[in-house]
Amino acid sequence: MKNIAVIGVGYVGLVTGTCFADLGNRVTCVDVNEERIANLKQGILPIYEPGLEEVVRRNLAAGRLSFTTSYAEALNCPEAPAELVFIAVNTPTGVDGEAELRYVRAAAEMIAQTMDHPLIIVNKSTVPVGTGDWVADIVRNKQPKPIPFSVVSNPEFLREGSALSDFMNPDRIVLGSLDEEAAQKVAQLYLPLRGPIMITDPRTAEMIKYASNAFLATKISFINEIANICEALGADVKEVAAGMGYDKRIGRAFLDAGLGYGGSCFPKDVKALAHMANVQGKHPQLLEAVMQINADARRSIVAKVRALVGNNSTHLNRLEGKTIGVLGLAFKANTDDIRESQPIDIIRMIQADGGTVKAYDPVAMPNAAKVLHNVKLCADAYEVAEGSDALILATEWNEFKNLDLARIKRIMKQPVIVDGRNLYDPPAMRELGFIYRGVGRGY
Ligand code: UDX
Ligand code: ADP
Protein backbone atom coordinates (compact mmCIF):
# COMPACT_ATOMS: atom_id res chain seq x y z
CA MET A 1 0.00 0.00 0.00
CA LYS A 2 1.36 3.39 -0.98
CA ASN A 3 0.08 6.93 -0.61
CA ILE A 4 -0.41 8.44 -4.03
CA ALA A 5 -1.51 11.84 -5.32
CA VAL A 6 -2.92 12.23 -8.84
CA ILE A 7 -3.11 15.63 -10.50
CA GLY A 8 -5.98 16.05 -12.97
CA VAL A 9 -9.23 14.07 -12.90
CA GLY A 10 -9.89 13.78 -16.64
CA TYR A 11 -9.93 10.50 -18.53
CA VAL A 12 -6.34 9.64 -17.71
CA GLY A 13 -6.11 10.87 -14.10
CA LEU A 14 -9.46 9.59 -12.91
CA VAL A 15 -8.95 6.11 -14.35
CA THR A 16 -5.36 5.94 -13.06
CA GLY A 17 -6.19 7.19 -9.56
CA THR A 18 -9.28 5.00 -9.22
CA CYS A 19 -7.48 1.88 -10.39
CA PHE A 20 -4.53 2.46 -8.04
CA ALA A 21 -7.05 2.86 -5.19
CA ASP A 22 -8.77 -0.34 -6.26
CA LEU A 23 -5.40 -2.09 -6.02
CA GLY A 24 -5.34 -1.16 -2.33
CA ASN A 25 -3.41 2.12 -2.36
CA ARG A 26 -4.53 5.36 -0.74
CA VAL A 27 -5.11 7.86 -3.52
CA THR A 28 -5.93 11.56 -3.36
CA CYS A 29 -6.87 13.19 -6.66
CA VAL A 30 -6.50 16.93 -7.05
CA ASP A 31 -7.95 19.14 -9.77
CA VAL A 32 -8.30 22.89 -10.31
CA ASN A 33 -11.88 22.39 -11.51
CA GLU A 34 -13.96 22.90 -8.36
CA GLU A 35 -17.19 21.63 -9.87
CA ARG A 36 -15.56 18.36 -10.98
CA ILE A 37 -14.14 17.80 -7.49
CA ALA A 38 -17.42 18.65 -5.71
CA ASN A 39 -19.25 16.16 -7.93
CA LEU A 40 -16.63 13.46 -7.57
CA LYS A 41 -16.84 13.69 -3.79
CA GLN A 42 -20.43 12.51 -4.25
CA GLY A 43 -19.48 9.85 -6.76
CA ILE A 44 -20.66 11.88 -9.79
CA LEU A 45 -18.24 11.48 -12.70
CA PRO A 46 -17.21 14.21 -15.18
CA ILE A 47 -16.81 11.64 -17.98
CA TYR A 48 -18.53 8.56 -19.30
CA GLU A 49 -16.33 5.49 -19.02
CA PRO A 50 -17.97 2.07 -18.75
CA GLY A 51 -17.64 0.57 -15.26
CA LEU A 52 -15.74 3.53 -13.79
CA GLU A 53 -18.53 5.01 -11.67
CA GLU A 54 -18.99 1.81 -9.70
CA VAL A 55 -15.25 1.50 -8.95
CA VAL A 56 -15.04 5.20 -7.95
CA ARG A 57 -17.97 4.80 -5.55
CA ARG A 58 -16.62 1.59 -4.08
CA ASN A 59 -13.21 3.11 -3.35
CA LEU A 60 -14.71 6.36 -2.06
CA ALA A 61 -16.78 4.33 0.40
CA ALA A 62 -13.74 2.29 1.42
CA GLY A 63 -11.85 5.53 2.15
CA ARG A 64 -9.02 4.66 -0.26
CA LEU A 65 -9.98 7.33 -2.81
CA SER A 66 -10.55 11.01 -2.12
CA PHE A 67 -10.84 14.22 -4.12
CA THR A 68 -9.67 17.73 -3.37
CA THR A 69 -8.78 21.04 -4.96
CA SER A 70 -5.91 21.47 -2.50
CA TYR A 71 -2.42 20.40 -3.54
CA ALA A 72 -1.34 20.59 0.12
CA GLU A 73 -4.05 18.13 1.12
CA ALA A 74 -3.10 15.76 -1.70
CA LEU A 75 0.67 15.90 -1.13
CA ASN A 76 1.24 16.65 2.54
CA CYS A 77 -1.61 15.03 4.45
CA PRO A 78 0.06 14.44 7.89
CA GLU A 79 -1.39 10.92 8.34
CA ALA A 80 -0.60 9.86 4.78
CA PRO A 81 2.02 12.00 3.02
CA ALA A 82 2.20 11.13 -0.68
CA GLU A 83 5.22 9.14 -1.77
CA LEU A 84 4.37 9.42 -5.45
CA VAL A 85 2.53 12.11 -7.40
CA PHE A 86 1.19 11.43 -10.90
CA ILE A 87 0.77 14.34 -13.30
CA ALA A 88 -2.24 13.57 -15.52
CA VAL A 89 -3.32 16.97 -16.82
CA ASN A 90 -4.34 17.70 -20.40
CA THR A 91 -1.79 18.57 -23.10
CA PRO A 92 -3.86 20.10 -25.94
CA THR A 93 -2.50 20.85 -29.40
CA GLY A 94 -0.86 24.27 -29.73
CA VAL A 95 -0.96 26.57 -32.75
CA ASP A 96 1.89 24.84 -34.59
CA GLY A 97 0.79 21.27 -33.86
CA GLU A 98 2.98 20.99 -30.77
CA ALA A 99 1.69 19.54 -27.48
CA GLU A 100 0.89 22.50 -25.24
CA LEU A 101 2.57 22.24 -21.86
CA ARG A 102 1.08 25.08 -19.87
CA TYR A 103 -1.01 22.76 -17.66
CA VAL A 104 1.96 20.48 -17.03
CA ARG A 105 4.02 23.54 -16.13
CA ALA A 106 1.33 24.78 -13.72
CA ALA A 107 1.12 21.35 -12.08
CA ALA A 108 4.92 21.09 -11.74
CA GLU A 109 5.09 24.58 -10.23
CA MET A 110 2.36 23.77 -7.73
CA ILE A 111 4.09 20.54 -6.73
CA ALA A 112 7.38 22.42 -6.23
CA GLN A 113 5.75 25.12 -4.12
CA THR A 114 3.69 22.68 -2.04
CA MET A 115 5.85 19.61 -1.36
CA ASP A 116 7.24 19.44 2.15
CA HIS A 117 9.00 16.04 1.87
CA PRO A 118 10.81 13.99 -0.83
CA LEU A 119 8.59 12.87 -3.73
CA ILE A 120 8.64 10.79 -6.87
CA ILE A 121 6.96 12.82 -9.63
CA VAL A 122 5.49 10.59 -12.31
CA ASN A 123 4.51 12.02 -15.66
CA LYS A 124 1.46 10.30 -17.18
CA SER A 125 0.40 13.04 -19.59
CA THR A 126 1.59 12.59 -23.17
CA VAL A 127 4.39 15.11 -23.42
CA PRO A 128 7.08 15.97 -25.97
CA VAL A 129 10.32 14.06 -25.74
CA GLY A 130 12.51 15.87 -23.21
CA THR A 131 9.64 17.04 -20.97
CA GLY A 132 10.83 14.88 -18.07
CA ASP A 133 14.03 16.94 -17.87
CA TRP A 134 12.02 20.14 -18.24
CA VAL A 135 9.66 19.19 -15.38
CA ALA A 136 12.69 18.42 -13.18
CA ASP A 137 14.11 21.89 -13.97
CA ILE A 138 10.82 23.61 -13.14
CA VAL A 139 10.46 21.79 -9.82
CA ARG A 140 14.10 22.50 -8.89
CA ASN A 141 13.76 26.20 -9.77
CA LYS A 142 10.39 26.73 -8.08
CA GLN A 143 11.07 24.98 -4.79
CA PRO A 144 11.28 27.54 -1.96
CA LYS A 145 13.98 25.32 -0.39
CA PRO A 146 15.65 22.22 -1.91
CA ILE A 147 13.81 18.97 -1.17
CA PRO A 148 14.92 15.82 -3.00
CA PHE A 149 12.67 14.47 -5.77
CA SER A 150 12.89 12.26 -8.85
CA VAL A 151 10.99 12.38 -12.12
CA VAL A 152 9.74 9.22 -13.83
CA SER A 153 8.01 9.11 -17.19
CA ASN A 154 5.16 6.58 -17.26
CA PRO A 155 3.10 7.00 -20.45
CA GLU A 156 -0.50 5.79 -20.45
CA PHE A 157 -1.87 3.43 -23.07
CA LEU A 158 -5.52 3.46 -21.99
CA ARG A 159 -8.24 3.43 -24.62
CA GLU A 160 -11.40 5.33 -23.80
CA GLY A 161 -14.30 2.95 -23.54
CA SER A 162 -12.12 0.11 -22.23
CA ALA A 163 -9.81 2.09 -19.96
CA LEU A 164 -10.44 0.02 -16.81
CA SER A 165 -9.64 -3.29 -18.42
CA ASP A 166 -6.69 -1.72 -20.28
CA PHE A 167 -5.34 -0.51 -16.93
CA MET A 168 -5.83 -3.85 -15.19
CA ASN A 169 -4.50 -5.92 -18.13
CA PRO A 170 -1.64 -3.88 -19.56
CA ASP A 171 0.31 -5.05 -22.62
CA ARG A 172 3.27 -3.35 -21.00
CA ILE A 173 4.25 -0.76 -18.41
CA VAL A 174 6.87 1.69 -19.63
CA LEU A 175 8.94 3.62 -17.09
CA GLY A 176 11.64 6.12 -17.95
CA SER A 177 13.97 7.59 -15.37
CA LEU A 178 17.59 8.33 -14.67
CA ASP A 179 16.88 7.27 -11.07
CA GLU A 180 16.64 3.47 -11.09
CA GLU A 181 15.39 3.33 -7.49
CA ALA A 182 12.52 5.73 -8.23
CA ALA A 183 11.57 3.73 -11.34
CA GLN A 184 11.56 0.53 -9.27
CA LYS A 185 9.23 2.17 -6.71
CA VAL A 186 6.77 3.05 -9.48
CA ALA A 187 7.18 -0.46 -10.90
CA GLN A 188 6.08 -1.93 -7.54
CA LEU A 189 2.69 -0.23 -7.93
CA TYR A 190 2.12 -2.18 -11.13
CA LEU A 191 3.41 -5.59 -9.94
CA PRO A 192 -0.10 -6.90 -9.10
CA LEU A 193 -1.06 -6.43 -12.76
CA ARG A 194 1.59 -8.92 -13.90
CA GLY A 195 2.26 -7.08 -17.17
CA PRO A 196 5.77 -6.77 -18.61
CA ILE A 197 7.57 -3.78 -17.11
CA MET A 198 10.21 -2.00 -19.16
CA ILE A 199 12.54 0.49 -17.51
CA THR A 200 14.45 2.84 -19.77
CA ASP A 201 15.62 6.43 -19.90
CA PRO A 202 13.02 9.24 -19.84
CA ARG A 203 13.36 10.36 -23.47
CA THR A 204 13.02 6.82 -24.75
CA ALA A 205 9.93 6.25 -22.59
CA GLU A 206 8.35 9.44 -23.92
CA MET A 207 9.19 8.40 -27.48
CA ILE A 208 7.68 4.91 -26.98
CA LYS A 209 4.32 6.56 -26.38
CA TYR A 210 4.47 8.72 -29.51
CA ALA A 211 5.87 5.94 -31.68
CA SER A 212 3.16 3.51 -30.49
CA ASN A 213 0.29 5.89 -31.19
CA ALA A 214 1.80 6.99 -34.51
CA PHE A 215 2.19 3.36 -35.55
CA LEU A 216 -1.43 2.54 -34.73
CA ALA A 217 -2.56 5.68 -36.58
CA THR A 218 -0.43 4.54 -39.52
CA LYS A 219 -2.16 1.15 -39.53
CA ILE A 220 -5.53 2.94 -39.69
CA SER A 221 -4.43 5.24 -42.53
CA PHE A 222 -2.84 2.30 -44.32
CA ILE A 223 -6.08 0.32 -44.31
CA ASN A 224 -8.05 3.42 -45.34
CA GLU A 225 -5.73 3.82 -48.32
CA ILE A 226 -6.22 0.14 -49.18
CA ALA A 227 -10.00 0.70 -48.79
CA ASN A 228 -9.85 3.47 -51.33
CA ILE A 229 -8.08 1.21 -53.80
CA CYS A 230 -10.50 -1.65 -53.02
CA GLU A 231 -13.42 0.58 -54.00
CA ALA A 232 -11.83 1.25 -57.38
CA LEU A 233 -10.89 -2.36 -58.02
CA GLY A 234 -13.93 -4.21 -56.69
CA ALA A 235 -12.37 -5.83 -53.60
CA ASP A 236 -13.72 -5.92 -50.04
CA VAL A 237 -11.45 -4.27 -47.47
CA LYS A 238 -13.06 -6.11 -44.55
CA GLU A 239 -12.02 -9.43 -46.05
CA VAL A 240 -8.64 -8.00 -47.01
CA ALA A 241 -8.04 -6.93 -43.38
CA ALA A 242 -9.15 -10.35 -42.13
CA GLY A 243 -6.83 -12.07 -44.58
CA MET A 244 -3.91 -9.81 -43.66
CA GLY A 245 -4.60 -10.21 -39.96
CA TYR A 246 -3.89 -13.94 -39.95
CA ASP A 247 -0.25 -13.06 -40.50
CA LYS A 248 1.13 -12.72 -36.97
CA ARG A 249 3.61 -10.14 -38.18
CA ILE A 250 0.69 -7.90 -39.21
CA GLY A 251 -2.14 -8.69 -36.78
CA ARG A 252 -5.84 -7.89 -37.31
CA ALA A 253 -6.07 -5.07 -34.72
CA PHE A 254 -6.43 -1.47 -35.92
CA LEU A 255 -7.18 -2.50 -39.49
CA ASP A 256 -10.79 -1.30 -39.52
CA ALA A 257 -11.29 1.04 -42.44
CA GLY A 258 -13.80 3.82 -41.86
CA LEU A 259 -13.83 7.47 -40.93
CA GLY A 260 -10.17 7.52 -39.91
CA TYR A 261 -8.95 8.11 -36.38
CA GLY A 262 -10.38 10.78 -34.06
CA GLY A 263 -10.22 11.33 -30.32
CA SER A 264 -7.96 13.12 -27.92
CA CYS A 265 -4.83 11.10 -28.63
CA PHE A 266 -4.01 9.93 -32.15
CA PRO A 267 -4.67 13.24 -33.98
CA LYS A 268 -2.78 15.20 -31.34
CA ASP A 269 0.10 12.76 -30.95
CA VAL A 270 0.79 12.27 -34.68
CA LYS A 271 0.77 16.05 -35.13
CA ALA A 272 3.04 16.57 -32.14
CA LEU A 273 5.53 13.91 -33.31
CA ALA A 274 5.64 15.47 -36.79
CA HIS A 275 6.18 18.86 -35.16
CA MET A 276 9.06 17.52 -33.05
CA ALA A 277 10.65 16.05 -36.19
CA ASN A 278 10.25 19.29 -38.14
CA VAL A 279 11.79 21.33 -35.34
CA GLN A 280 14.82 19.03 -35.53
CA GLY A 281 15.07 19.55 -39.30
CA LYS A 282 13.76 16.05 -40.09
CA HIS A 283 11.07 15.55 -42.69
CA PRO A 284 8.34 13.25 -41.29
CA GLN A 285 6.99 12.19 -44.71
CA LEU A 286 5.17 9.09 -43.53
CA LEU A 287 3.44 10.93 -40.67
CA GLU A 288 2.35 13.67 -43.06
CA ALA A 289 0.79 11.10 -45.39
CA VAL A 290 -0.92 9.45 -42.40
CA MET A 291 -2.52 12.79 -41.46
CA GLN A 292 -3.60 13.57 -45.04
CA ILE A 293 -5.18 10.17 -45.55
CA ASN A 294 -6.95 10.59 -42.22
CA ALA A 295 -8.45 13.93 -43.23
CA ASP A 296 -9.50 12.45 -46.59
CA ALA A 297 -11.42 9.64 -44.88
CA ARG A 298 -13.87 12.18 -43.46
CA ARG A 299 -14.17 14.07 -46.75
CA SER A 300 -14.80 10.90 -48.67
CA ILE A 301 -17.91 10.11 -46.58
CA VAL A 302 -19.40 13.49 -47.48
CA ALA A 303 -18.40 12.96 -51.13
CA LYS A 304 -20.36 9.68 -51.12
CA VAL A 305 -23.44 11.39 -49.69
CA ARG A 306 -23.13 14.12 -52.30
CA ALA A 307 -22.77 11.61 -55.11
CA LEU A 308 -25.86 9.70 -53.95
CA VAL A 309 -28.33 12.43 -53.01
CA GLY A 310 -26.66 15.75 -53.87
CA ASN A 311 -27.98 18.31 -56.30
CA ASN A 312 -26.51 18.12 -59.75
CA SER A 313 -24.57 21.34 -59.44
CA THR A 314 -20.97 22.36 -59.77
CA HIS A 315 -21.54 25.12 -57.21
CA LEU A 316 -21.44 25.00 -53.45
CA ASN A 317 -24.63 24.05 -51.63
CA ARG A 318 -24.77 20.66 -53.29
CA LEU A 319 -26.78 19.36 -50.33
CA GLU A 320 -29.20 22.28 -50.18
CA GLY A 321 -32.73 21.08 -49.45
CA LYS A 322 -31.45 17.68 -48.30
CA THR A 323 -31.76 16.25 -44.80
CA ILE A 324 -28.88 14.06 -43.74
CA GLY A 325 -29.19 11.87 -40.65
CA VAL A 326 -26.07 11.10 -38.64
CA LEU A 327 -25.98 8.12 -36.29
CA GLY A 328 -23.25 8.64 -33.69
CA LEU A 329 -21.37 11.75 -32.58
CA ALA A 330 -18.56 10.32 -30.43
CA PHE A 331 -15.18 9.59 -32.05
CA LYS A 332 -15.75 5.90 -31.38
CA ALA A 333 -18.23 3.73 -29.47
CA ASN A 334 -18.49 3.54 -25.66
CA THR A 335 -17.37 7.08 -24.94
CA ASP A 336 -18.99 10.50 -24.67
CA ASP A 337 -15.80 12.14 -25.94
CA ILE A 338 -16.19 14.34 -29.01
CA ARG A 339 -12.64 15.69 -29.15
CA GLU A 340 -11.47 15.54 -32.80
CA SER A 341 -14.68 13.65 -33.52
CA GLN A 342 -15.07 12.56 -37.13
CA PRO A 343 -18.91 12.75 -37.05
CA ILE A 344 -18.79 16.37 -35.85
CA ASP A 345 -16.43 17.28 -38.70
CA ILE A 346 -18.64 15.48 -41.19
CA ILE A 347 -21.71 17.35 -39.90
CA ARG A 348 -19.92 20.67 -40.39
CA MET A 349 -18.99 19.70 -43.97
CA ILE A 350 -22.61 18.78 -44.72
CA GLN A 351 -23.79 22.08 -43.28
CA ALA A 352 -21.19 23.97 -45.33
CA ASP A 353 -22.69 22.23 -48.36
CA GLY A 354 -26.15 23.55 -47.50
CA GLY A 355 -27.51 20.32 -45.98
CA THR A 356 -29.75 20.04 -42.92
CA VAL A 357 -28.57 17.62 -40.23
CA LYS A 358 -30.38 15.43 -37.72
CA ALA A 359 -28.30 13.35 -35.33
CA TYR A 360 -28.37 10.96 -32.40
CA ASP A 361 -25.77 9.45 -30.08
CA PRO A 362 -26.53 7.33 -26.99
CA VAL A 363 -24.16 9.29 -24.68
CA ALA A 364 -22.29 12.04 -26.52
CA MET A 365 -25.24 14.36 -27.25
CA PRO A 366 -24.78 16.68 -24.25
CA ASN A 367 -21.14 17.26 -25.24
CA ALA A 368 -22.02 17.59 -28.94
CA ALA A 369 -24.79 20.10 -28.18
CA LYS A 370 -22.14 22.48 -26.83
CA VAL A 371 -20.28 22.67 -30.16
CA LEU A 372 -22.90 22.02 -32.86
CA HIS A 373 -25.27 24.62 -34.26
CA ASN A 374 -28.54 24.07 -36.13
CA VAL A 375 -28.48 20.32 -35.73
CA LYS A 376 -31.68 18.59 -34.64
CA LEU A 377 -30.64 16.19 -31.87
CA CYS A 378 -33.06 13.27 -31.81
CA ALA A 379 -34.26 10.74 -29.24
CA ASP A 380 -33.18 7.69 -31.21
CA ALA A 381 -32.01 6.36 -34.57
CA TYR A 382 -35.56 6.13 -35.92
CA GLU A 383 -36.28 9.80 -35.29
CA VAL A 384 -33.07 10.56 -37.19
CA ALA A 385 -34.11 8.36 -40.10
CA GLU A 386 -37.62 9.83 -40.36
CA GLY A 387 -37.74 11.95 -43.52
CA SER A 388 -33.95 11.85 -44.10
CA ASP A 389 -32.55 11.76 -47.64
CA ALA A 390 -29.53 9.80 -46.45
CA LEU A 391 -28.23 8.25 -43.24
CA ILE A 392 -24.58 8.21 -42.24
CA LEU A 393 -23.55 5.53 -39.76
CA ALA A 394 -20.78 7.43 -37.99
CA THR A 395 -20.09 5.69 -34.65
CA GLU A 396 -20.18 1.93 -34.17
CA TRP A 397 -22.42 1.84 -31.08
CA ASN A 398 -23.87 -1.60 -30.33
CA GLU A 399 -27.41 -0.25 -30.50
CA PHE A 400 -26.89 0.57 -34.20
CA LYS A 401 -25.92 -3.02 -34.99
CA ASN A 402 -29.43 -4.40 -34.65
CA LEU A 403 -31.65 -1.62 -35.93
CA ASP A 404 -34.98 -2.49 -37.52
CA LEU A 405 -33.68 -1.67 -40.98
CA ALA A 406 -36.97 -2.45 -42.72
CA ARG A 407 -38.59 0.23 -40.53
CA ILE A 408 -35.71 2.63 -41.22
CA LYS A 409 -36.20 2.11 -44.96
CA ARG A 410 -39.93 2.80 -44.68
CA ILE A 411 -39.54 6.09 -42.81
CA MET A 412 -36.62 7.56 -44.77
CA LYS A 413 -37.32 9.90 -47.66
CA GLN A 414 -34.80 7.98 -49.75
CA PRO A 415 -33.32 4.62 -48.64
CA VAL A 416 -29.70 5.72 -48.76
CA ILE A 417 -27.14 4.61 -46.15
CA VAL A 418 -23.47 5.55 -46.09
CA ASP A 419 -21.89 3.25 -43.54
CA GLY A 420 -18.73 4.89 -42.23
CA ARG A 421 -17.93 1.95 -39.93
CA ASN A 422 -18.70 -1.01 -42.22
CA LEU A 423 -21.25 -2.20 -39.69
CA TYR A 424 -23.66 -3.71 -42.17
CA ASP A 425 -23.47 -6.42 -44.79
CA PRO A 426 -23.61 -4.89 -48.31
CA PRO A 427 -25.55 -7.72 -50.04
CA ALA A 428 -28.07 -7.86 -47.15
CA MET A 429 -28.55 -4.10 -47.36
CA ARG A 430 -29.15 -4.26 -51.10
CA GLU A 431 -31.56 -7.15 -50.53
CA LEU A 432 -33.50 -4.89 -48.16
CA GLY A 433 -33.71 -2.30 -50.92
CA PHE A 434 -31.16 0.21 -49.65
CA ILE A 435 -28.74 2.15 -51.76
CA TYR A 436 -25.78 1.31 -49.56
CA ARG A 437 -22.14 2.40 -49.52
CA GLY A 438 -19.59 1.23 -46.99
CA VAL A 439 -15.88 2.08 -46.94
CA GLY A 440 -13.69 0.01 -49.24
CA ARG A 441 -16.37 -2.49 -50.12
CA GLY A 442 -16.06 -2.39 -53.83
CA TYR A 443 -17.88 -5.53 -54.84
C1 UDX B 1 -5.71 5.70 -28.06
C2 UDX B 1 -4.71 4.56 -27.86
O1 UDX B 1 -5.23 3.35 -28.44
C3 UDX B 1 -4.40 4.35 -26.39
O2 UDX B 1 -3.37 3.39 -26.27
C4 UDX B 1 -3.99 5.67 -25.69
O3 UDX B 1 -2.67 6.02 -26.00
C5 UDX B 1 -4.95 6.81 -26.03
O4 UDX B 1 -5.21 6.87 -27.45
P1 UDX B 1 -8.34 6.04 -27.87
O5 UDX B 1 -8.09 7.36 -28.51
O6 UDX B 1 -9.19 5.98 -26.65
O7 UDX B 1 -6.96 5.32 -27.49
O8 UDX B 1 -9.05 5.12 -28.96
P2 UDX B 1 -8.64 3.97 -29.98
O9 UDX B 1 -9.46 2.79 -29.68
O10 UDX B 1 -7.19 3.79 -30.10
O11 UDX B 1 -9.22 4.59 -31.36
C6 UDX B 1 -8.75 5.83 -31.87
C7 UDX B 1 -9.49 6.20 -33.13
O12 UDX B 1 -9.14 5.32 -34.20
C8 UDX B 1 -11.02 6.11 -33.01
O13 UDX B 1 -11.59 7.21 -33.68
C9 UDX B 1 -11.37 4.82 -33.71
O14 UDX B 1 -12.67 4.85 -34.26
C10 UDX B 1 -10.32 4.79 -34.80
N1 UDX B 1 -10.00 3.44 -35.29
C11 UDX B 1 -9.47 2.51 -34.43
C12 UDX B 1 -10.20 3.11 -36.64
O15 UDX B 1 -10.66 3.95 -37.43
N2 UDX B 1 -9.86 1.86 -37.08
C13 UDX B 1 -9.34 0.91 -36.25
O16 UDX B 1 -9.06 -0.20 -36.73
C14 UDX B 1 -9.13 1.24 -34.88
P1 ADP C 1 -7.06 13.79 -20.40
O1 ADP C 1 -7.94 13.22 -21.49
O2 ADP C 1 -5.62 13.96 -20.86
O3 ADP C 1 -7.17 13.07 -19.11
P2 ADP C 1 -8.89 15.92 -19.59
O4 ADP C 1 -9.05 17.23 -20.29
O5 ADP C 1 -9.98 14.90 -19.64
O6 ADP C 1 -7.53 15.30 -20.18
O7 ADP C 1 -8.54 16.17 -18.07
C1 ADP C 1 -7.51 16.95 -17.60
C2 ADP C 1 -7.86 17.44 -16.20
O8 ADP C 1 -6.71 18.12 -15.67
C3 ADP C 1 -9.02 18.43 -16.14
O9 ADP C 1 -9.96 18.00 -15.18
C4 ADP C 1 -8.34 19.75 -15.71
O10 ADP C 1 -9.19 20.56 -14.90
C5 ADP C 1 -7.16 19.24 -14.93
N1 ADP C 1 -6.06 20.21 -14.78
C6 ADP C 1 -5.51 21.01 -15.72
N2 ADP C 1 -4.52 21.73 -15.21
C7 ADP C 1 -4.42 21.40 -13.90
C8 ADP C 1 -3.57 21.80 -12.82
N3 ADP C 1 -2.59 22.68 -13.00
N4 ADP C 1 -3.77 21.24 -11.60
C9 ADP C 1 -4.74 20.33 -11.40
N5 ADP C 1 -5.58 19.91 -12.37
C10 ADP C 1 -5.42 20.43 -13.61
TrEMBL record:
<protein>
    <recommendedName>
        <fullName>UDP-glucose 6-dehydrogenase</fullName>
        <ecNumber>1.1.1.22</ecNumber>
    </recommendedName>
</protein>
<feature type="binding site">
    <location>
        <position position="36"/>
    </location>
    <ligand>
        <name>NAD(+)</name>
    </ligand>
</feature>
<feature type="binding site">
    <location>
        <position position="126"/>
    </location>
    <ligand>
        <name>NAD(+)</name>
    </ligand>
</feature>
<feature type="binding site">
    <location>
        <position position="262"/>
    </location>
    <ligand>
        <name>substrate</name>
    </ligand>
</feature>
<feature type="binding site">
    <location>
        <begin position="254"/>
        <end position="258"/>
    </location>
    <ligand>
        <name>substrate</name>
    </ligand>
</feature>
<feature type="binding site">
    <location>
        <position position="91"/>
    </location>
    <ligand>
        <name>NAD(+)</name>
    </ligand>
</feature>
<comment type="pathway">
    <text>Nucleotide-sugar biosynthesis; UDP-alpha-D-glucuronate biosynthesis; UDP-alpha-D-glucuronate from UDP-alpha-D-glucose: step 1/1.</text>
</comment>
<feature type="active site" description="Nucleophile">
    <location>
        <position position="265"/>
    </location>
</feature>
<dbReference type="GO" id="GO:0006065">
    <property type="term" value="P:UDP-glucuronate biosynthetic process"/>
</dbReference>
<dbReference type="InterPro" id="IPR017476">
    <property type="entry name" value="UDP-Glc/GDP-Man"/>
</dbReference>
<feature type="binding site">
    <location>
        <position position="31"/>
    </location>
    <ligand>
        <name>NAD(+)</name>
    </ligand>
</feature>
<dbReference type="GO" id="GO:0003979">
    <property type="term" value="F:UDP-glucose 6-dehydrogenase activity"/>
</dbReference>
<dbReference type="InterPro" id="IPR036220">
    <property type="entry name" value="UDP-Glc/GDP-Man_DH_C_sf"/>
</dbReference>
<dbReference type="InterPro" id="IPR001732">
    <property type="entry name" value="UDP-Glc/GDP-Man_DH_N"/>
</dbReference>
<feature type="domain" description="UDP-glucose/GDP-mannose dehydrogenase C-terminal">
    <location>
        <begin position="325"/>
        <end position="426"/>
    </location>
</feature>
<feature type="binding site">
    <location>
        <position position="160"/>
    </location>
    <ligand>
        <name>NAD(+)</name>
    </ligand>
</feature>
<keyword id="KW-0560">Oxidoreductase</keyword>
<comment type="similarity">
    <text>Belongs to the UDP-glucose/GDP-mannose dehydrogenase family.</text>
</comment>
<dbReference type="Pfam" id="PF03721">
    <property type="entry name" value="UDPG_MGDP_dh_N"/>
</dbReference>
<feature type="binding site">
    <location>
        <position position="209"/>
    </location>
    <ligand>
        <name>substrate</name>
    </ligand>
</feature>
<dbReference type="InterPro" id="IPR008927">
    <property type="entry name" value="6-PGluconate_DH-like_C_sf"/>
</dbReference>
<dbReference type="GO" id="GO:0051287">
    <property type="term" value="F:NAD binding"/>
</dbReference>
<feature type="binding site">
    <location>
        <begin position="157"/>
        <end position="160"/>
    </location>
    <ligand>
        <name>substrate</name>
    </ligand>
</feature>
<dbReference type="GO" id="GO:0000271">
    <property type="term" value="P:polysaccharide biosynthetic process"/>
</dbReference>
<dbReference type="InterPro" id="IPR014027">
    <property type="entry name" value="UDP-Glc/GDP-Man_DH_C"/>
</dbReference>
<dbReference type="InterPro" id="IPR014026">
    <property type="entry name" value="UDP-Glc/GDP-Man_DH_dimer"/>
</dbReference>
<dbReference type="Pfam" id="PF03720">
    <property type="entry name" value="UDPG_MGDP_dh_C"/>
</dbReference>
<feature type="binding site">
    <location>
        <position position="339"/>
    </location>
    <ligand>
        <name>NAD(+)</name>
    </ligand>
</feature>
<dbReference type="Pfam" id="PF00984">
    <property type="entry name" value="UDPG_MGDP_dh"/>
</dbReference>
<dbReference type="InterPro" id="IPR028357">
    <property type="entry name" value="UDPglc_DH_bac"/>
</dbReference>
<keyword id="KW-0520">NAD</keyword>
<feature type="binding site">
    <location>
        <position position="268"/>
    </location>
    <ligand>
        <name>NAD(+)</name>
    </ligand>
</feature>
<dbReference type="InterPro" id="IPR036291">
    <property type="entry name" value="NAD(P)-bd_dom_sf"/>
</dbReference>
<feature type="binding site">
    <location>
        <position position="332"/>
    </location>
    <ligand>
        <name>substrate</name>
    </ligand>
</feature>
